[in-house]
Amino acid sequence: MHFANFKFHLTARLIGVKRMSEPEAAPQLSVVTSAPVALTTGGTFSPTTATLISGPSEVALVDTLYTPRDVELLGDEIEATGKVLTTIFITHAHFDHYVGLGALLDRFPDARGVALAPVVDLIEKNMAADKTITDDWLPGNVTDYSRIPEVLDGNVFTVDGIELRAVDVGQADIEHSSVLHIPSIAAVIAGDVAYNGVHQMLGLSGPDDWQRWIDSVDRVAALSPRTVVAGHKIPGRSDDDVAAILDGTRDYISAFMHESTVASGPEALVAAMVGHFPDFANPATLHFSAMMHFQRERND
């Protein structure tokens, strides 16, 4: 998420790892999920994912996490594979997905950090604002903003010869979002195009963007995945219930679109959404999205 528009404070928490196995010849996925982090404004920061893709001798990483401790533990997880980290792919320009790049490249200097060109451009545009906010409200809790990914040459890179395809899907909770498709195992590492059991960030976009986000989810569905790793998820929740993940992401956006047109104010919108999704984690994001929606309404 990009938080240049509001202020908060995070503290590092232990991250959990869920491993998924495939047949021996297939790449292996390990999904690392950060624990919710307390906000000074109340509630928690959304649990964020990073994904390792391992072949017989090489490994790639999708997204980086953001607190110094979480990034260190992610590096430990990479080292524990005993394989060579070749590539770190960044799905989109939200700091919690890219800011760990510098620390990881310092630790694994033979790896390269890459993203699609629109993502690189947006990181360059947003980084100063992100750093200003996190310096003020996250002192000591966000790793150094020291690296911007390189532009990926084309849209394919490999792990031990296994093709990994970067797909520019467009709008998600931020513009210029991408996903990583692994055709050999019918998996999509979806970044913030998909959420899994977590309130979604709609506060930094508007109704037209929300429909485009639904269209982006449709593009992921068109890849016919059997596994979808969401950028934000409840730790331990399955990545293989693809219908629930993609339909849930669409349904949440659609419900917010409708309820935002009939709610009398932020509190009513929050209540309506909690009624639809009572078990979803991270209500702080919902409160922010509702507040921002009605601020836009007043300013229009």
Write the layout of secondary structure elements.
Blueprint lengths: L15 E5 L7 E6 L3 E2 L5 E2 L3 E6 L3 E5 L5 H13 L3 E6 L5 H4 L2 H7 L4 E4 L1 H21 L12 E2 L4 E4 L2 E9 L6 E6 L4 E3 L5 E2 L10 H15 L5 E3 L2 E2 L8 H21 L3 H11 L6 H17 L1
Parallel strand pairs: 6-7, 7-8, 8-9, 13-15, 14-16
Antiparallel strand pairs: 1-2, 2-5, 3-4, 5-6, 10-11, 11-12, 12-13
CATH homology group:
Ribonuclease Z/Hydroxyacylglutathione hydrolase-like
Our measurement of the CA-to-CA distance between the termini, rounded to an integer number of angstroms, reads 24 Å
Percentage of residues assigned to helices:
25-40%
CATH topology: Metallo-beta-lactamase, Chain A
Helix count equals 8
Number of strands: 16
CATH domain class:
Alpha Beta
Q: Kindly give the count of domains.
A: 1
**Helix-strand pattern:** EEEEEEHEHHEHEEEEEEHEEHHH
Strand order across the largest sheet: 1-2-5-6-7-8-9
What fraction strand?
15-25%
Radius of gyration: 18 Å
Mean pLDDT: 90
Stretches with pLDDT under 50, minimum 5 residues: 1-18, 20-24
Which architecture per CATH? 4-Layer Sandwich
Query: How does the helix and strand content classify structurally?
Result: alpha/beta
Protein name: Metallo-beta-lactamase domain-containing protein
InterPro entries: Metallo-B-lactamas, NDM-1-like, RibonucZ/Hydroxyglut_hydro
Domain Metallo-beta-lactamase: 47-232
